[in-house]
Amino acid sequence: MMSDPSISRKLLAGMAAAALAAIVVSGAFGAAAGGAVAYVMLHGAAQSAAALAAPAAEPVPAQLQASVGDGGVAQAVSSVAPSVVTVVNYMDAATAQTEQAEKASGSGVVISTDGHVVTNAHVVEGSQRLEVILASGETVPADLVGSDPFADLAVLKIDPGAAPAAAFGDSDALLPGETVIAIGSPLGDFANTVTVGVVSALNRGLETSAGFRMEGLLQTDAAINRGNSGGPLVDARGRVVGINTLVVRGSGASGVVAEGLGFAIPSKAVKAITDQLIAKGRVERPYLGIRWEWITPQLASGNRLAVDYGAFVTEVSPDSPASQSGLQRGDVLIGIDGTRFGEETPFLNQLLKYAPGDRVTIELQRGGSEIQVEVTLAERPSF
Fold it and tell me: Which of 49, 98, 112, 183 has the largest count of CB atoms under 10 Å?
């Protein structure tokens, strides 16, 4: 059962995130360089002739230059690593001041000179006290500015100047195959871990809870583990192009195990959500005022329902837009403004396309008949 329009963030617990930190250059370069110099001195004339005869190298297409970078992975990491932090969530109020406190950890990245830190909403869920461990190892207190479970993003606040701010890149300009770097604290113990991969695909959608899909995600094969959630996905120029949010390990039904299926929220969406959280402490989401169960073809078949997809209303909140418009317990919502619900168009995703104050037409089935109800949406309360 789900409360409208909230999702069970526990099902996001599989969320993942990625790696971090410093890369050390080997001192073996000197010997190798000496041999190379000798080779050039002995064979310089032949190499010069070959160079004259060789065709000019093809220029790198402008749309691929971002993947080449300005100094390789090490330079990209060195520019952003000081901004990457570990987020520690103390969840038990009774023991929040003791070493035995129930706690969880994830990753984050500083995004403003004012000390704002972005991480995942599921990382700070249920927090009684928050701390941030900087790349330097220093631990500082953090306050929760705001959280949005639907985007799985949250903003924290630490003292200004405690760590430098990372720069956002343009996630819309990414191409499949482009190099990306994940930075974070896997398992909470390996701070500033760096993993490298590519953009595997763009605009992925995944069901993270019954009846809700996260959409527009970046897919990457950069290694992501528990504790990396909330850490940055960085391009080859050291710019944050995503926030790591989850990893898919395989299909529970088939037992097939998969590797290299990580997902990140693109920077364009991150910036839009964090701007609202910083300005208002919340993201304005529409509110209907029902509890509901998501109907799938399997449930429909087992219960002899007339529709394959829909939202079965189990409770209508008093004085809500739903109650004021006449929605009833037992109604099956099947569409909004002419868009029928389905696997790719679930109820909650369609509802979240609207804003508080919007008037919508909800199509539903009641007692074997299909009817339409006009509803003016309110703003989702803060719970």
Answer: 183
